[in-house]
Amino acid sequence: MFATYLIGLREGLEATLVVSILVAFLVKSQRRDRLPQVWAGVGLAVVLSVVFGWLIEYTSTSLLARSEDRELFEAVTSVAAVVFVTWMIFWMRTAARTIAGELRGKLTDALAVGSLAVAGMAFLAVIREGLETALIFYSAAQSAAGGTGAGALLSLAGGVATAVVIGFLLYRSALKINLSKFFTWTGALLILVAAGILKYGVHDFQEAGVLPGLNNQAFDISSTLDPNAWYGALLAGMFNITAAPTVLEMIAWVAYAVPVLVLFLRKPATPARPAAPPATAGAPAPTPAGDAVSTPAEPADTEASTDTAPQRA
Questions:
Q1: What is the pLDDT of residues 237-248, one digit of tens each?
Q2: Which residue from 59, 92, 193, 211 has the highest number of Cβ atoms inside 10 Å of its Cβ?
Q3: Burial class (CB in 10 A: 0-12, 13-18, 19+), 312
Q4: Measured CA distances, 193 to 13, 265, 296 (Å)
C-alpha cells in the first residue's frame, strides 16, 4: 500500500504546488475576485480525474468478459502508466526551476481574457496530474494486489491528503522543506515502482498470450523470500519483487530500472554563465544571473524554493 500512498503524495504535492502558485499570484495581485474561478477549475479537474479512474476500473471489471482481454487491458494500462511516470519525474526535475514563472505568466494572460480563461487555466494545470494519478494508481494497485481494493484507495487518499496539508503549510509559511531533495527521493522510489508495474505488465502480456515464456522462470527463491511473510508482501506490494518471476519479467525490470535510475540520479550539467561585460564608470555592477531574490509572496523559480512561500493573506 505504500506504493499507492507514494503516488498520491507525489502527484498530489505537484498539483497542490501548482494551485498554491496560482492562488498566491492572485492574492498578491489584488485579484481575489478571480479565486472562485480557480477553485471551479480545480474542482472540475478533480471530478473528471475520479470519473476517469472509475471508467478504467469499470472497463476492466465489467466491459471485458474474457480473462485474456482483461489481462491485455491491464498490460496496456501498465505500460502507459510506466510511460507517464517516467515522463513526469523527468519533466518535474527540469521544469521545477521555471514552473512558477510560467504559471504566473499564463495566469496573467488568462486574467486579461476573462473568468472562463482563469477557470480553464486552473483546470488544465490540475487535470494532467489527476489523469496521471488515476492511471498510475490503477496500474500500481493491480500490480500490488491484483485489484483496486479499499486499502489501496485509502492509501491513495492518504497520500493526497498529506500532500494537501503540506501544500497548505507551505503556503502559510509554517513548513519549510527542500523540494529538490523531496522530488529526487520520491522520484527514485517511483522509478522502482514503475519497474514493478512494467514487470507486472509483461506478466499480463504473457498471460494474454501476446508474449511467450509464461512458464519459463528466471529463478525460484520461495524458500528465502516467503511471499506470505511481511517482508515478502512489502517488496511485492511496493516494487512487485516476487520469488519466482519469469525471464522476460526480470529482463524488463532490469532493462528499465537500471538505466532510468542512472539517468535520473545523474546530476544535470550546469550551463556556464556568460562573462559579465566590463563595468562602466559610475554604473552599478550587474547582478549575476540567478542571484535575484523573489518577493516573499512569490515562490522562487527553483527546485528548492520552499523558504519563500507566500505570506499570510
A1: 777 888 889 999
A2: 193
A3: exposed
A4: 18, 16, 36
